[in-house]
Amino acid sequence: MRPSALLLLLCLGCDNASEERVKLAEQQKQAEQRVAKAEREAREEIARLKTELGEMKAKLEEATKKQAGLAEDQKQLEAALAKAKKAYKALVKSELESLNKEAKELAAKTAKAPAKTKQATSKAMKDISAKQKQVATGLAEFDGATVETLDTVKAKLDKELGALRASIKSAKAKLP
Question: Can you give the pTM of this predicted structure?
Fold first, then answer.
């Protein structure tokens, strides 16, 4: 071969090697840019997740505090309910004792009354006895009443007391 052709081939080989080095350097640069971009995105995602985690922790702490406050409110409500139930029950018992006393006096008067009057008040006395039992049952229900059922149970008990009161008044009217 001729020396100039050999030289030409060597130069062409050098150009190819040089071009490949440039291409390789360019690919290397692109790879490094992709890695840098991926690392930057990962750091940004980590920072975003840390911020989100901090917000979630703050919300959890706030919810925990609210729950503790609600538990305290629940205790206060239960204490107030127990106090109100106790006061109302004492009031009902006092009224029931008074009505029971009237019923006993009425029974004593009925026993001394003439036969015709006894017959007329006998049914009323049975009615009074049944209503006394209803009030006693209502008091037992009242003990187990919850916040949700308290109004209903109280209304029922008030109605039963009113019926007992009316029965006693009606029976008294039948006596001389």
Answer: 0.60
